[in-house]
UniProtKB/TrEMBL annotation:
A single GO molecular function term of this UniProt record: dTDP-4-dehydrorhamnose reductase activity
EC number: 1.1.1.133
Broadest EC class assigned to this enzyme: oxidoreductase
Record's keyword annotation contains NADP: yes
Domain RmlD-like substrate binding: 19-298
Source organism (scientific name): Polymorphospora lycopeni
Name of protein: dTDP-4-dehydrorhamnose reductase
Family the entry assigns: Belongs to the dTDP-4-dehydrorhamnose reductase family.
Gene that produces this protein: rfbD
Entries under InterPro entries matching the protein: dTDP_dehydrorham_reduct, NAD(P)-bd_dom_sf, RmlD-like-bd
Keywords associated with the record: NADP, Oxidoreductase
Pfam family, one: RmlD_sub_bind
Stored SUPFAM superfamilies: NAD(P)-binding Rossmann-fold domains (SSF51735)
Pathway assignment: Carbohydrate biosynthesis; dTDP-L-rhamnose biosynthesis
Amino acid sequence: MSDLDTAGPATPGTGPARWLVTGAGGMLGHDLLAVLGRHPGARVTAATRADLDLTDAAAVKSAVAGHDLVVNAAAWTDVDAAETREAEATEVNGTGVTNLAAACAATGARLLHVSTDYVFAGDGREPYPEDHPTAPVNAYGRGKLVGEQAVARLLPDTGYVVRTAWLYGAHGRNFVATMLRLAAERETLEVVDDQHGQPTWSYALAGRLVALGDAARAGRAPAGVYHGTASGRTTWYGLARAAYALRGLDPDRIRPTTSEHFRRPAPRPAYSVLGHARWALAGLSPMPDWHDQLAQALSGDWPT
């Protein structure tokens, strides 16, 4: 694990805070470190997968000790592999999160745990509110739900679950990067147009997690579930077309198709649009529209 001491003027009303970021080597983890690297008063410990095995309860307890805020960006993210290796995926996404929550309960640290839209059935027609009943349709979603339940059970007053979806960013594999890479390899691409969601920029989510952590530490944010997705909605087809247009490529090179033509081992929710009502309780507005986030992400016009 590595320490990034960026102590400066303290955030008003909170004083310097010690942050632990798990999953620091991933897409969201990279962005969390970038945001916290410029955050006044933040002292940051970065823990990659190689540094910290979340399934090792003793190691987790040792890593959490001395921190005020823990942001869990670590996860088993291979949705299709989870379908045939559910026990392994749940060991990370469920048992690992349970270990983190227990360690935070023992030390008094607040936990911000990143979860997923896949805890819902995906058969809705209106945005899912934060308290909507869960009903995951695949192994990945079931494992993530185990983690959510552990946070709620062990940290009723200091645990925060932030569900996100359709995440893309500058680091790691993601849909937007794949579409732009394939633009140089294929004249046309078929993309599904019957799955609806909210493409969310990992850098914007990182900023929101840090803001929520500040609000939580200052006593302004009630514990519980928040939905960390962009505003608005589109389909994978709409996202691909928008990415092409923003890069000066012909969006008509993207052709619509259905999920039936792209069968995968794990079923995907057809509707993953989430509501954002609880941000108001923390004094925060919903995240910006997905297209605005995408435009900024592809412009490269943000601090790195």
